[in-house]
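anyone seen this seq b4? input:
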Amino acid sequence: MIGQFRVRPVLDAATGYDGNVFNVQDGRSDRYLVASPRLDVEDDWGGGNLSLSGGATVLRYARLTSENSLALNGRASGRVDLSGTDRLDTNLSVARIPEPRGTGGVGIGLARPLIRNEFHSGIGGTAEVGGLVFSGALRADTQRYGDVPLRSGRIADQRYRNLDTVRAVVELGRRLGGNLVAFTQADVARDRSVSTPAALNRDAIGQTYSMGVRGDLAPLVTAQIVLGYRRVDYANPVYPDFAGPGYAATIDWYPRPLLSMRLTADRLFANSGIAGAAGIDTRREQLTVFWDPTRITRVRLSTTRFDERYRGAALSSGGVEAQVSIRYAFSRHAALTGSIGYRDRSSSNTALVSPYRAGTALVGLSLVP
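predicted toks r here
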């Protein structure tokens, strides 16, 4: 504690092995060191909450030093309680993110990691009247890419990926009893390309209309299940418009006191790293199991399957990922961590997205002073 603020510094450090650093066929392996310091500050008062956090991830390889990277992130969020059920929320975040290898397009031939800079801000509120729950939010998002060198010696212009997005979300819910809420939602977003060549302009208007339920479905089961319809209309005729059903589901089951399972499934439409494809129609399913065999030991097992279809390009890709991780807390302030993983991707067009297979291993230490 510092005054009325709860301050929590965290340092995670580990050494690991990646069997395919570049995520390509016949890729190269290497050992690496990674360190992630983070500082969390929080203050609760009678009428709300203030939370601040900031951190970094420093990655250093033994031989493939071109892949060394630095990720940064910071976030501030606040809540003001207007009554027992009504509140205002606001948040602000910034991030410097090295994109993972194998994301497609120019990423295959980069001489160093591609950096994405993000800025997000939002304000919203929730009010409840007679069992009806009203909520709404306004959000502004920015992403910027810098030009990057290729291994061929050329410079890759990434301005076609720069976007400013303004989004408005409105939701109406109805309490069905207990903690279960049924809701309907409208989400309208406008994307504007920034400093983008006219031929690659990605200005678009997206609309999503959905309905769903969230809360306790059974005594040991909580969930959020959403079904909807999404449409994206591009101003540039080069890019095909997108329309179709979408879904997102998260189901948590607690069969035993020290065992829990989470199943997630969704269909998303994400920005593409390939100039000729405006977006990626992605379907993903993930199963995660959390098991605490002792009070100081946690085991996490996860497996993920994904399928990607690139809009406007003759390309589809998919694969699986799996990971087992263990955390052993030998004191209140320190824990040993370890994990092993496997990833496998297929591709119908190896010139745009490379297929690959890789295994990973990591062992480290987590410190909380």
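The two ends are 12 Å apart (CA to CA). The chain is about 0% helix and 70% strand. kinda curious what u guys think
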